[in-house]
Amino acid sequence: HAAVRESPSRPWPDEEFLRWAHDRGPLFAPGQGWAYSNIGYLLLRKILDRHGGLAAFLPTLGFTAATVAEDLPDFSRAVPARSALIGDGIHPVAGRYHPGWVAHRTVLTSARQLHRFWSSPPPAFTDLANLVPLGVDTRGFFVHATYGLGTLADPHSPFGLIIGHGGGGPGYSAGAFTAPGQAAVAIVLEPAEDFPAQDLAVELLKTAVSRAR
Hints:
Layout: H1 2-6, H2 14-24, H3 38-49, H4 54-57, E1 67-69, E2 82-83, E3 91-92, E4 106-108, H5 111-119, H6 123-126, E5 132-133, E6 146-148, E7 151-157, E8 160-169, E9 172-179, E10 184-190, H7 197-212
Antiparallel strand pairs: 1-4, 2-3, 5-6, 6-7, 7-8, 8-9, 9-10
């Protein structure tokens, strides 16, 4: 975070991310805990780079108009946002924050395409065999929190399986969740870095399913 603030336009190369992760060492022994790992997704991105890159896989997932932010000007295609994390003061994200700071990269797309994707997620996402119980407190986010294939899920909610993902960074917050068995999707995209987009998306989803019953 300090490096992003000090040099928002000059991201670390992959080797620097990996060096920092290696030098810190593991947080726990294998099988003795759980933590979200952007470094793991950096390694996955490097594998995809050998097979055409992340952008080459997006159309097969239904993201026909999506792009991958790779260079400094790329965020100019997104809804404008400002951030207090990219230098002293508050600055526009576009043209100042380099997407290379997101080691696994960021996809630029629309709420419409996100809705289409989460209305019919890949079968692997909803296969309970691919979900691992977290065993950690999710702040009441989910009662039976599990994780798998990059998605957070609750397979035993009162509404059946709920699954999705969210995130945030300089200038933006996002959350997209679906209850496939209820044909319900909730998406929250906000040009603000401290907005509780994931929490709101889950609450909207639960409210929509409850009213439909």
